Amino acid sequence: MKDVYILAIESSCDETAASVVKNGREVLSNVISSQIPIHQKFGGVVPEVASRKHVENIASVVEMALSEAGVKKEDLTLVAVTHGPGLVGALLVGLQFAKGYAFSLGIPLLGVNHIEGHIAANYIQYKNLTPPFVSLVVSGGHTFVVHVEDYDKFTVMGETRDDAAGEAFDKVARALGLGYPGGPKIDAAAKKGDPYAITFPKARFHEDTLDFSFSGLKSAVLNYLNSERQKGNDIHVENVAASFQRAVVSVLVENAMKTIETKHLDKIAVAGGVASNSSLREELKKRGEEKGVEILFPEMILCTDNAAMIGSAAYFQYIKGKRSDNSLNAVPGLSL
Ligand code: KG4
Ligand code: ZN
To answer: Cofactor comment in the record (predicted)?
Structure first.
């Protein structure tokens, strides 16, 4: 088969990203223009600001991705773009740009599910990885344990009933005055704290499901902080961070391992921004070694939002004949 060069575009949240991916697993360029410093002063992503910044940046990010890859526009096979889930205004910027680009070059367009993209980051990292496996998808907007039966066949085994794991990290970090995005700040603070200092409830929905619930845990942390402050006690930020993180990580590990047992599989591929969490990496690896389960993590740059993962997910659909047409729309609540 001829080599497949995919230009992938990602603009679902606060990163404007473009990448050229060859044959689904080889990243020729991976350009990410982060808006984090802009949103930091608001303590979170402001959707209207995100859309405007995408408009400003997208053309140059795409040009950079092509020039870094050393690939001419005429050599592209396909334009892939995230069409959901995400912020509607942000998604529309990438989508409209991708449509125009594909049309002007006379090549096909393919809409990609952002969550499938996060999972596909593992195909880039692990060149021999093939389904089936279990994926733990933990990002700012999503928390899923998924049975990946094939490149395009997913069964959600458990999901959050309220906040996403990353969202809980961000909200607790804000309450601790650590700033945005909270995940990396809590991760760093927790390294200096005692994870057993405070007992917070587990982030579980129910004993007998694989679903998660993070809002109860988040409220428990906020209540703890309020009550300590009312008593005039100093807050030991590192201990709170470490104890909160332990509660999140333990349920993520537990549900992923339970899914492995249920499905009789031997690989867990972790995905999404929270996959960079050092405690999650350590705990899963430890449990994996005990149980003979291989634990896979993409490198950090492929965990948080990027376009290379979208290019990889698109490839496996493209070779099965999937294409989108010009009616492709943004679907903010797109599910797996
Ligand atoms: O996947 P991602 O870049 O964007 C979404 O699709 O949501 O994930 C961003 C999330 C944020 O909530 C951020 O706080 C979290 O990932 N995150 C982390 C770490 N690095 C990023 N959470 C915990 N520990 C980290 N080291
Ligand atoms: Zn994401």
So the answer is: Binds 1 Fe(2+) ion per subunit.
Rg of the chain's alpha carbons, rounded to an integer? 20
Hey, which of 304, 306, 309, 334 would you mutate to test ligand 1's pocket, going by the most ligand atoms within 8 Å of its Cβ? 304
pLDDT digits (tens, 9 = 90+) for 258-268: 999 999 999 99
Domains of the chain are 5-120+303-318 (3.30.420.40), 131-298 (3.30.420.40)
CB neighbourhood size of 280 (10 A):
25
pLDDT of residue 51: 83
DSSP assignment of 192-245: TS-TTSS-PPPSBS-TTSS-B--HHHHHHHHHHHHHHHHTTPPP-HHHHHHHHH
As a whole number, the mean pLDDT across the chain is 94
Do 267 and 146 contact (CB within 8 A), yes or no?
no
Q: What is the pLDDT of residue 39?
A: 64
- Atom 16 of ligand 1: nearest residue by CA position: 273
pLDDT at 35 over 80: no
**Ligand 1: centre distance to CA 216 (Å):** 20
Structure tokens at 172: 């607790």
Write out the DSSP string of 153-206: EEEEEEEBSSS-HHHHHHHHHHHTT--SSHHHHHHHHHTTS-TTSS-PPPSBS-
Question: What is the reported pTM?
Answer: 0.94
